[in-house]
Structure formats: C-alpha cells, structure tokens
Amino acid sequence: MPTILHLDTSARSLDKSRTSRNSISRMLADSFREQWTKKMPTTKVIYRDLAEKPPGFIDEAWIAAAFTPEEQRTAEQNTLISLSDELIDEVTEADMILLSTPMYNYGMPATLKAWFDQVIRVNKTFSFDLGRGDYPLQPTLSGKTMVLMTSCGEFGFHVGGIREKMNHLGPHIEVASQYLGVDKFYEIRCEYQEFGDQRHIDSLNNAHTDITNLIKRLT
Ligand SMILES: Cc1cc2nc3c(=O)[nH]c(=O)nc-3n(C[C@H](O)[C@H](O)[C@H](O)COP(=O)(O)O)c2cc1C
C-alpha cells in the first residue's frame, strides 16, 4: 500500500463552493490527490496543513537537543524535539510527498521553511561524516518521490525563463528534499496569477494537463 504525505502551505484556503480567491497550489494538489487515489484506492494519505498549524521555529535549545545523542537527552530535550520526531516519522513512512506551496517573495512561505528545519535532522534524515571530504552530509532515507505544486503571481521562473534567477522556490525545495530521501522530483507550476489574463488561464489548464500526464507516468 503506497503512502502519500500531503502537505498544503498556502495562507489562502480552498473552498470548492467558491469560484474565486481559492488557493491555486492547494487546488492543484487536491486534483492530483483525487485522481491518484481514484487510480490507486489503497493509498494511505497522511495530511498536514502547515498554514493552519505551523511548526515552531527552531531555536538554540532545539539545536542543542537535536545534536545531543539520544541516550543522553534530558526529558525536557525530548519534549523540545517531539514535534520534529513526529514530522520525521511521517516523512519516513511516505513513499511520496505531495507538497503544495505558493511563491512568497521569490521563495517558500515561512511555515514551510519551519517544516524543513524541523524535519532535516542529523542522525535522523542525514548523517554527517568529515571522512567524506567536501561533502560530509549524506541522506539516510532514499527512494521517495516528491510531487511539488507551485503557484506564483508573475511568470518566467522556468529554466531559461526571464525570472529563472529569481526563482528560489522549486530549486530550493529540490535541494533540501534530497536530505529527506527524495530522489525523484517533479514540479508542476501555475504562473501569471497576478495578471489574471488569458496567459493565467492557459497556465492553469497546462498545469491540470501536466497532473493527468504525471499520474499516468507514475502509476
Ligand atoms: C506575501 C506574498 C508574497 C508574494 N510574492 C510573490 C513573488 O515573490 N513572486 C510572485 O511571482 N508572486 C508572488 N506572490 C503571488 C503568489 O505567489 C500568488 O498569488 C499565488 O497564486 C499564491 O498561491 P496560492 O494561490 O496557492 O495561494 C506573493 C503573494 C503573497 C501573498
């Protein structure tokens, strides 16, 4: 039975009875999940809404706890990293991470960054060994697929596009996700939201076509 960890992060919600102001990234992930589970009905879905319940920011005490060997941690330190443990268990269980996110200020929302800071953890999702020379970090998990749904107000963030160099969303997530065991990465992006013109309608339609094609490819 495949397991999907579905994470939504947009500050905007998705209300299917509404015709406007819906989160586009949430809508794309919802469509992927609906089509996927129709085709693969035994899929287990773990769901988190990071906008509704944002993970806390890590601090000095959190870092000290994470770097203390498990058998030496105090009860207080175990409590400090208990959410991190829970979030990591969800990642570990997942075969696929279905992540939806808006572009905020050319990168990811703070809630999603807080999630990454909680889940990428030494001796849990990666090992650190200076014996490896210039690349001491190595992921300990593997074989996961990430399907990323993004939405942005402007356009041209693709490779070779006019805003490629301003895109700190998909490329950042792809790099960070390696330390969660992601070795297959797919991004479906909707652009032009702020223009609201035909280009936006076309971009949204293309994203929906991409979803159908990706599901065919992965199932
Ligand atoms: C706080 C904030 C910052 C944003 N920053 C950018 C940006 O840097 N580049 C961009 O293209 N769009 C930006 N946008 C537009 C959003 O990416 C766009 O509205 C997108 O559709 C939001 O995703 P959602 O529909 O899933 O909520 C921003 C929107 C907000 C609210």
Automatic annotation (TrEMBL):
Instruction: Name the keywords, alphabetized.
Output: Flavoprotein, FMN, NAD, Oxidoreductase
Enumerate the residues binding FMN: 10, 23-25
What are its cofactors?
Answer: FMN
Q: What is its EC number?
A: 1.6.5.-, 1.7.1.17
InterPro entries hit by this protein = Flavodoxin_fold, Flavoprotein-like_sf, FMN-dep_NADH:Q_OxRdtase_AzoR1, NADH:quinone_OxRdtase_FMN_depd
Catalyses:
N,N-dimethyl-1,4-phenylenediamine + anthranilate + 2 NAD(+) = 2-(4-dimethylaminophenyl)diazenylbenzoate + 2 NADH + 2 H(+); 2 a quinone + NADH + H(+) = 2 a 1,4-benzosemiquinone + NAD(+)
One function term, GO molecular function aspect: FMN binding
Note accompanying the cofactor annotation: Binds 1 FMN per subunit.
Q: Which residues form the Flavodoxin-like fold domain?
A: 21-199
Q: Which HAMAP family match?
A: Azoreductase_type1
Q: Record's PANTHER family?
A: FMN-DEPENDENT NADH-AZOREDUCTASE 1, FMN-DEPENDENT NADH:QUINONE OXIDOREDUCTASE
Quaternary organization: Homodimer.
Write out the function statement from the record: Also exhibits azoreductase activity. Catalyzes the reductive cleavage of the azo bond in aromatic azo compounds to the corresponding amines.
Task: Give the record's family classification.
Answer: Belongs to the azoreductase type 1 family.
Q: What is this protein called?
A: FMN dependent NADH:quinone oxidoreductase
